[in-house]
Amino acid sequence: MLVDSDILIDAGTGMGNLTMEELVQIDHIFVTHSHLDHIVFIPFLVDTVGFMRQNPITVYATQDTISILKNHLFNWNIWPDFTKIPNTENPYMRYEVISQNNAVDLQGRIITPLPANHVVPAVGYQLNSGSASLVFTGDTTTNDALWQVVNTIENLKYLIIEAAFCEEKKDIAIRSKHLCPSLLCNELEKLKLQTEIYITHLKQGEDELTMREIQTYAGKFNPQRLLKNQIFDF
Q: Do 202 and 165 sit in the same domain of this protein?
């Protein structure tokens, strides 16, 4: 998710759609968790544009996620450690530790990590422009702590929530800590605010089936499929 021109929420394969001019403008990456589909383009981004920039790209994540990135990705075995290239005083990349419910203010754009419930340490994010907010749950399953926070966001305009599996694979959703249509419906019942709801993380090949099932289970919430290149104005 690209916020304005300089902030990313996660860095999956969708970044491949950005031009070189757009990639150079990215200053901040907020990571929900360490799974590959959410971080895969960070190494390529830094490797491609790092030398073109005057300041390092900042990767924001929890301490647990940063530790995973250091130990298993930017470890000189899988990929170089760009916090030390070209040197530690002037690196291409730097880390910034974040924690749940502690907001980061980037020139009036308030980004707050939210609780998530996944198989690795994870967060979602609230993006608050001041006039309205968007909540992105990231990868999560049943998560009462999330709704306790979300229901206090008075200017909530958009909710982007996952549904990774169709109903037939509910057991896999539970074991992998994702949502399926019935679990999604149970979660949306906890939402006390009126907002536009968009569904993400649909499995290719099962996406149309899953959306039909979502309409069956949760149609009263009018959930829409998140589309490629969709723009949210808030």
A: yes
Q: How far is the first Cα of the chain from the last one, in angstroms, to the nearest whole number?
A: 14
Neighbours of 205 (CB within 10 A): 9
The secondary structure element, H or E, covering residue 96 is: strand 93-97
Give this prediction's pTM: 0.96
- From 98, 130, 154, the end of a domain falls on 98
Q: Are β-strands 123-128 and 133-136 bridged in parallel, bridged antiparallel, or unpaired? A: antiparallel
Beta-carbon contacts of 105 under 8 Å, excluding residues fewer than 6 positions away, are none
Question: Which tokens belong to 179?
Answer: 């949502």
Q: How far lies 82's CA from each of 29, 35, 121, 124, 204, in Å?
A: 14, 19, 23, 25, 33
The parent domain of residue 6 ranges over: 1-98
- How many helices (H) and strands (E) are present in the chain, helices listed first? 8, 12
Q: Give per-residue pLDDT as tens, 176-233.
A: 999 999 999 999 999 999 999 999 999 999 999 999 999 999 999 999 999 999 999 9
Residues 85 and 105 reside in one and the same domain: no
Identify the CA nearest to 142 among candidates 189, 195, 101, 98. Answer: 189
